[in-house]
UniProtKB/TrEMBL annotation, chains A, B:
The active site is at T194 (nucleophile). CDD domains: OAT (cd02152). Catalyzes two activities which are involved in the cyclic version of arginine biosynthesis: the synthesis of N-acetylglutamate from glutamate and acetyl-CoA as the acetyl donor, and of ornithine by transacetylation between N(2)-acetylornithine and glutamate. InterPro entries: Arg_biosynth_ArgJ, ArgJ-like_dom_sf, ArgJ_beta_C. This is Arginine biosynthesis bifunctional protein ArgJ. The record marks T119, G120 as: Involved in the stabilization of negative charge on the oxyanion by the formation of the oxyanion hole.
Amino acid sequence: MAVGPSTFPADMPAIAGFQIGVAEAGIKKPGRRDLVIMALEAGSRLAGTFTRNAFCAAPVHVAREHLTAGAEGPRYLVINTGNANAGTGEQGMTDARATCQALAEIAGCDAKAVLPFSTGVIGEPLPMDRLTAALPTAFANLGEGDWSAAAHGIMTTDTRPKGSWRTLALSNGESVTLAGASKGSGMICPNMATMLGFVATDADLAIDQPALDAMLRRVVVKSFNSITVDSDTSTNDACMLAVTGQAGRVEGEDLIAFEAALAEVMLELAQAIIRDGEGATKFVTIEVSEARSQEEARAVGFTVAHSPLVKTALYASDANWGRILAAVGRAPLEELDVTGVAITLNGVTIVEQGGRADSYTEAAGSAAMAEEELVIGIRLGRGQQEARIWTSDLSHDYVSINADYRS
Amino acid sequence: MAVGPSTFPADMPAIAGFQIGVAEAGIKKPGRRDLVIMALEAGSRLAGTFTRNAFCAAPVHVAREHLTAGAEGPRYLVINTGNANAGTGEQGMTDARATCQALAEIAGCDAKAVLPFSTGVIGEPLPMDRLTAALPTAFANLGEGDWSAAAHGIMTTDTRPKGSWRTLALSNGESVTLAGASKGSGMICPNMATMLGFVATDADLAIDQPALDAMLRRVVVKSFNSITVDSDTSTNDACMLAVTGQAGRVEGEDLIAFEAALAEVMLELAQAIIRDGEGATKFVTIEVSEARSQEEARAVGFTVAHSPLVKTALYASDANWGRILAAVGRAPLEELDVTGVAITLNGVTIVEQGGRADSYTEAAGSAAMAEEELVIGIRLGRGQQEARIWTSDLSHDYVSINADYRS
């Protein structure tokens, strides 16, 4: 199940200096693309954010280490689906390093120039024989622009590929392009990181690595770190931004426009994960305003987004707004004066001054809840800050997907 | 659905100085007991804990106020099910006070000697005409010992009544009795409070009110505040302990034995809520040990207990222990060294030194998961503190109950 039509663009562009190669390694089951290589031209830069889960997977450890360790800079990302290589102890670390080494030998580069990524079931050993056997095929397939193959090749319980892109005209008349793919459907509550998200740009950014890292962090907070399907932060989340520098120079005011374009691409990729959330039948935006701080606004948004009772009411299209109110009331806020709280549902005011709005009718609430796309507005009445969180509902299919299938 | 046979005792005892009266008020639907009065002999004492939900219901506000305000002390508790009188603004406060006033006029006492409690749907006005019309019947029915009627009369989505009792032989040869009833099935994650729980004792406790309050708080933390069905803290949680003082004097060492007996009664009432959790097919104890603090141990326990992925794996009896590991990894702990973590399932070691145990077999894990009652042991390897949290699984029935029915 998924909300609305697929959002994968038909016209995903190639990024100069960035190539994609895909193969069928049969890691979990045969006959599907499950191994992806992304190649960065020499001289490219790479920024990344990773999961904060303490049990972060072996490839996350190795990718984080290689991100800064390679003398020749980053050259290859290698991504497998079907197995997360998490909870696998020392063997997992050995396997992640061996994957880098195997690709490095094929490509003729240093193993530290390769960053590994894995997604899939936790706690089972990575089938190294099948993975390494398929590396030459994926490497031989490297070519520009096949984002659809990459997006398919990283899917787990996803029902459809996720991609987004933008071009940006620069002040000097040149232009740059950004494109990316993401995956994710369950175990989605990124914490200072993301599910797997890969974005590449040909821009020649006039900023140093710390500034590039900071830009990625700013954008990730408002995109991948603002979504939740089920409150479960994965062991394997990672978001990577590859900058090949093969196109126009981006400096001055253009940097602001570039960050805005990057934010749009990342947000579309993040929202695509929610639209494809496990069992999702609703796409829900929670807009929290008049908070004392960003953190407070986000805490209220996530409390509502994680409430099983709110999520089942959304699934039922039941205007049971008392559950939203109860979730706001249990959010970790100091001294919330409920008489200042107002709640709307697709513009219909349901709560004002802490109680049911005089103007509210069950008919209006039910009509709003029947929509496939919902905006829950929560005004806290105690400050100037705001945040937006995106989530899906809790359906029978979510239970079936996670009870019937070992993901 | 519920786990195991009903645990309601066949032989619930009367408590001297404590009476119960029940009526059918037709608050939500006709033909069921939905109004309960509990009467305390003059001179009784009462201690209580209430929800920390900022949107706490009107009756919670009034009960908290009356708990200390009445010149003649507490005399009556009046409890309705079918309507929570929460999110009802000023009208809700007026209705809660009017309920106390109506009972006070029948009983010939001060309105402040009456404490109101409500449970049921949030956001709909309390049907005062039906409620007050049934008060004389409930009052006329007052008598000692019908705990079964009281336990039935406070149920919402509960599938069975919940009760527990103990007698305690004192050093001086006398004895005292404790008995109580609770309700709760969904919207269960009490926070410094509980779902509705009412316990009465005829003990003559040789402690002052602050010490009585403190005893109740200590016991509640390890019982009602250590359970969760769905992470949603209700707007109406309350736990009351009535002390009539009609039986033996409890002092000195006997006070320690009394607190232990009270803890057993409260824990049985809390566990009965989990066994009857909405859609529950499993009764799960999460034992967290070797933590740096109680708070840390509880945080890990609740993170695992709230994980939808852990809960659906429990429902499926799928030994997908990677989900438990991932939940431990995202718990809010400072600098968790995962190599110190061990996880067991009904005694079967699944994780040691942060990865899959060498001795682990899928067959042993599956056999453990197939049990209806499960103990998940989590050893953090970084301290001496421990905590136990109880929870249920996430089943299709949970979704059906909350999506098909406005609770």
